[in-house]
Amino acid sequence: MTPHEITILTHLLLLFQDLLPLTLSLLQPPHNPPMHVPTLVPHTPTPLTRSRFSAEAQLDFTTHCNYSCFHRGEQEEPREKLMDKLAFETLYADGFRTLTTVEVEDDNDDALHPTHLPPWTRVKHRRMKRQIYGADGRFNIQGDNFLLDYPFSTAVRISTGCTGVLVSQQHVLTAAHCVHDGKDYVHGARKLRVGFLIPPSINGTKTGLIPNKKPLVRWVRVKRTRVPKGWIQGPQEVSMDFDYALLELRWPHRRPFMRLWVAPSSDNLAGNRIHFSGFDSDRPGELVYRFCPVEEESSDLIYQHCDARPGASGSGVYGRVWDNTLERWERKVIGIFSGHQWLEIDGENRDYNVAVRITPLKFAQICYWLHGNRLDCTPD
């Protein structure tokens, strides 16, 4: 198949998946009750020693979990323990660190817990190759009309080898393990950068003359990095629930970004599907897009069989959620692609690719990181 035919096929596929949820919404649009988000109250930051940047980046992140781990959720956590996990470290470009503890103010205790999710059910999919399930369902995004088009334009590279997603004019959401191994920041976090793809035609190359020309990358330095304490020094099967970090750029960018949303139950996602684009290591220089249905979900994680390889970690996982105000399906970032997890259920190992859910508490935390105040932190 020629590059031109691949481009046409990709265009038709993306057009189809855009039209399908819109068609479904005309038939039976769901009614999502307003999501109540707790208020995160930060304390005065405490200075910490400078980071040693001694850790190695781990792009192929894999964890193990059993039945009790799968069913453990925020609703079972003592309030004090939750507050400890929602505390966060701030790393500055010069290596200086601070720790900020938090409290949560809310009149409704139910708002501290995720919505009820269905119990575990047996799935039919079986693993064929590590992180690739059956036929490879990934699509390379090529050409100016795709690379600079929303939502693909929201995907950015992280200099440690991961992917991130633009969530404001100056912020990038990614996976915590891309910058921190749970004990220390990785080598590359000392001079962390975010890369924006520049299509060949914009950087002076005519794609018609050189069909295999790769896009260039424009790198921007990171001013500040924030990582939740739930990730730092926690057991992997627990800390995977907090595998996210927010990077603040030195300068604002001019590209469109995708807004955050509290992850609904998969039943309230258009087509029960999630989507994400990343820079998979087996396709260097290419932005790779994929989508798939949600297989299972716990209170903190989304389990799926979207094909992915190392390098896709940190991709913004988005879905189309119904906006009651606009009365239409809207793309929202509802999670962060983390990696791979083996689940031991009833003596049987089952494998999934996993994304971290944005729960009401995580939304409140990340929103505070974005805005620097607690007044603007409601799903919009």
UniProtKB/TrEMBL annotation:
The keyword Kinase does not apply. The keyword Lipid biosynthesis does not apply. Residues 1-25 form the signal peptide. Keywords: Hydrolase, Protease, Serine protease, Signal. It comes from the Eukaryota. It is an enzyme of class 3 (hydrolase). Residues 150-189 form the Peptidase S1 domain. Its EC number is 3.4.21.-. Gene3D superfamilies: Trypsin-like serine proteases. Pfam families: Trypsin. Belongs to the peptidase S1B family. Belongs to the peptidase S1 family. This is Serine protease. It comes from Xenotaenia resolanae.
